[in-house]
Design a protein that fits this description.
The protein is an all-alpha fold. It folds into 2 domains: 19-73; 105-198. Helix content is 72%, strand content 0%. The protein is built from 4 helices and no strands. It has helices at 17-76, 105-149, 155-173, 176-198. The longest helix is centred in the first third of the chain and has 60 residues, at 17-76. The chain is elongated, with a radius of gyration of 45 Å. 0% of the residues are buried.
């Protein structure tokens, strides 16, 4: 027999609450991700692209202006040939080399090397003179100390020996005479070659 319809109880399938919570979270996460993606594509990406283009344009403009400024400054730069510097300077006369024709790269490099060597030698001399001055001050201070104490300081002789040793080393390291000799020889050779051209020996 068929059961009585009034006795049939309608029931719904039981569902785990945890599964429902996870489903809602995934659904909400999908919605939030979709909204964020739309915002990124529609608003953020165009703004970033615009900023990148502006920075690139600014860099190009700055580089062009900098290049123009460098070119302008180079055009205004005044250079001095090494030949205008004097050699064999003394109290009354100064020997100078007058340029009569264009020099080769090797001659220009030679002149630049001589000038740099003379400059470095002058700097070395200044440092050595400063060192000698300081040593003299030290010796003077020691002498004053001995005079006040009324007795001779035993280490003073050792200090004087060290000072003499340093002076000897300075004299050994001094190459100014050799550099001056080479400079004089180069100047004489250049002057002799110029004389050949002036006198018509070389045409």
């Amino acid at each position: 027999m068929w059961p009585d319809a009034s006795r049939i109880v309608k029931t719904s399938a039981s569902r785990d609450p945890l599964v429902g919570l996870i489903t809602k979270l995934c659904y909400n996460a999908g919605m939030v991700s979709s909204v964020l993606y739309l915002l990124l594509i529609a608003i953020i990406q165009p703004c970033i692209s615009r900023q990148i283009d502006q920075r690139r344009e600014l860099n190009v403009t700055a580089l062009l202006r900098l290049r123009r400024a460098v070119s302008y400054l180079c055009s205004k730069l005044k250079t001095t040939n090494v030949s205008v510097f004097g050699f064999n300077d003394n109290g009354a006369t100064v020997e100078r080399c007058t340029q009569t024709s264009s020099t080769s790269d090797s001659e220009q490099n030679l002149g630049g090397d001589m000038f740099e060597a003379s400059l470095s030698e002058a700097v070395k001399k200044d440092y050595w003179n400063l060192a000698n001055m300081k040593l003299k001050h030290i010796s003077f201070d020691v002498s004053q100390y001995n005079a006040r104490m009324g007795e001779r300081s035993p280490p003073r002789e050792q200090l004087q020996f060290e000072i003499k040793s340093v002076k000897n080393q300075v004299s050994l390291c001094d190459e100014s005479k050799e550099i001056k000799k080479k400079t004089d020889r180069i100047t004489d050779n250049i002057r002799e070659i110029k004389g050949w051209f002036v006198n018509g020996k070389i045409s």
